[in-house]
Amino acid sequence: MRYRLGVDVGGTFTDILLIDQDSGRTFRAKTPSTPHDQSVGVLAGIEKACAEAGISLAEIGQVLHGTTVATNAILEGKGARVGLVTTAGFRQVLQIARSFVPGGLAGWIIWPKPEPLAALEDTVEAVERVAADGSVVTALDEESLRISLRRLKGVEALAVSLINSYAFDGHERRVAEIAAEELPGVPISISSEVLPEMREYERTITTVVNSYVQPQVARYMDNLATKIAGGGVDGNLYVLRSDGGLASAAAAAAAPVNLLLSGPAGGVAGATWVAEQAGFPDFLTFDMGGTSTDVALVQNLQPRTGRETKVGDLAVRSASVDVRTVGAGGGSIAHVPELTRALRVGPQSAGAVPGPAAYNRGGEDPTVTDANVVLGYLPTQLAGGEIVLDRDRARQAVQRIADAMGLPSAEAAAQGIVDIVNENMFGALRLVSVQQGFDPRDFALVAFGGAGPLHANALGRLTGSWPVIIPPSPGVLCAYGDATTSLRDEAARTHIRRFSRLTDAELADLLAELAETAAATLEAEGIDRAAQTVTYQVDVRYHGQGFEIPITLEPGTGLDALGKAFDAEHERLFSFLLGNEHELVSARAAVSGPRPNVQPAALAEGTEDASAAVTGTHKVWVEGGWAETTVYDRSKLLAGNIVQGPAIVVEMDSTTLVLPGHAAFAHESGCLLISPVEA
């Protein structure tokens, strides 16, 4: 079976990309998402892609899936009722938390503290105690534990997080055994497996979140596997992790906390693939969909990853690509509040149902998509003709904004909507670049998602990031990322030692042991040890500091070199160094399988003349007035063709706008590279 299939389920569309691994040829499908049961939209998209390729579903060898099920369960508050077992005296660990209030100095006045995902009445205490060095101070009282667990009848999942269990997990494992007897059928998560690291609150909240989303994710995985198998797919199902690697469906269902940024991670993985083909190792990613925009920074083809994953107000300790999200998408609703009379765009979204007014499905609120229709940037058909846009309805919706603000025309209002949403997305790009100590002018900008190429040129002007890279099939690039990603697993452990009390050999042994644990997981999936790649990361701090910095290191790196690497990163982030001794806090080993054998497609050679791809002309609103613009069919562009702005480049899943004073170069990899004409 030589076909790999990537699936990405978004808030508005479900994207499918079918890849012939031998030739690199791709087949795309884009169908509306089905929020009531995402597997329905997934199967419909798979059938559509296979029909286009002329193959049966049985010829698909692997289905690789990026999902938002875990994320949505948290954002919508629709997870399981979770019971929690803590050490006696620590029952209110979730209520105390870290006493951090988001916002300004007065944030505590206006911030409604969210309710813990495990209610206090569903939290019980276990009489036991383990010291920080792993020694048992108080043995587990099993009889009192059984009595306490019987109070938790009705919980749908159970989390166990005992003090210092990262140093000794025997008590947690025994609690899980007893809980399985007292609460049969209830899935159980223990913190020494989910996050075997220090800090009781972070370890507890991460374990609780794992339990909170576990039943829903497990049901979804089982339902999806059943649906695609029933449809004729005989291949294995894999799910994208937040850190950009793949996990088997069973592993994903067991540790769903690792899937919270599964969807956005697929986009970063896909962007890395295409940027490598185009020859740009350093770039920013800009993924604009129908509901939100995700941005990230990639340096030397390595996405920046963090140890904290944020979903809404919730932060858990789980490795993830450092993606920032803003509520700005094609479906973002424009409105004028009565109090300020100032135009606002988002974060509310029209979603897939009813969608923008232009969709003619009952939506009446003006959206970013409607503004682009009014300005002439969008064709009348999207997703290969599956969605037909109604220009009159779009204009009527946007005219309400013009009337509310006293603007002279719907075009002026539409331009304001587009300008504001561009500034919102520019702010997100600054979060991953300027605020992290990087100059965006040193990076290219990879734009994708259904709406990304439409706004990409404007974002390039705001950031100074050139060229702006528009990948092939930008609307389904997240699915491309899913299909070009390798299996991955990670093992971690807290090991607090000052460098003076640690040797190079002890550090090497610790990392080797963690690598062995992660490698065994991949070996169980059929990945031979010789084909595995291992990367190491350690958390280091100055002795006495309350936080640490993750440092990536090569095998064989000694403590002296590690200390210098930490100093360099500390100075880059904070512009100062301390004289305190270095201290190791935690260590991790991530093991990845081989990259899939997917051959990149290549454009046929052409000249600078792109006239063969011209399909006509169209009027668009640019620089305050209407201008006659050339429309190009992207599928007819050849390598070396140059498209002068203003221009519109259309394809099945997206539309690219080239602004005046800019030009798009068709690269042999199939990417469009947009730059100012003088460049």
Question: What order do the helices and strands come in, and which of them pair?
Answer:
Blueprint: E1 3-9, E2 13-20, E3 26-32, H1 38-53, E4 60-66, H2 69-75, E5 82-87, H3 93-96, H4 107-110, E6 123-126, E7 129-130, E8 136-138, H5 142-149, E9 157-161, H6 170-182, E10 188-190, H7 191-194, H8 200-230, E11 236-240, E12 246-248, H9 249-254, H10 262-278, E13 283-288, E14 293-299, E15 302-303, E16 305-311, E17 314-321, E18 324-326, E19 332-335, E20 344-349, H11 368-374, E21 381-382, E22 387-388, H12 391-405, H13 410-432, E23 444-448, H14 452-463, E24 468-470, H15 477-483, E25 488-498, H16 504-524, E26 533-542, E27 549-553, H17 559-574, E28 582-592, E29 614-622, E30 625-633, E31 642-644, E32 647-650, E33 655-658, E34 662-666, E35 672-676
Parallel strand pairs: 1-4, 4-11, 5-6, 5-9, 9-10, 13-23, 23-24, 30-32
Antiparallel strand pairs: 1-2, 2-3, 7-8, 11-12, 13-14, 14-15, 14-18, 16-17, 19-20, 21-22, 24-35, 25-28, 26-27, 26-28, 29-30, 31-34, 32-33, 34-35
Feature tags:
679 residues; alpha+beta; nine-stranded mixed sheet
Commentary on this structure:
With 679 residues, this protein is an alpha+beta fold. The chain folds into 4 domains: 1-264, no CATH class; 340-422, no CATH class; 488-592, no CATH class; 602-679, no CATH class. It is 31% helix and 28% strand. It contains 17 helices and 35 strands. Strands 13, 14, 15, 18, 23, 24, 31, 34 and 35 form a 9-stranded mixed β-sheet that branches. Strands 3-2-1-4-11-12 form a 6-stranded mixed β-sheet. Strands 6-5-9-10 form a 4-stranded parallel β-sheet, with helices on both faces. A hairpin with a 4-residue loop joins β13 (283-288) and β14. The two termini are 45 Å apart. The model has no long low-confidence stretch (mean pLDDT 89). This is N-methylhydantoinase A. Residues 506-661 form the Acetophenone carboxylase-like C-terminal domain.
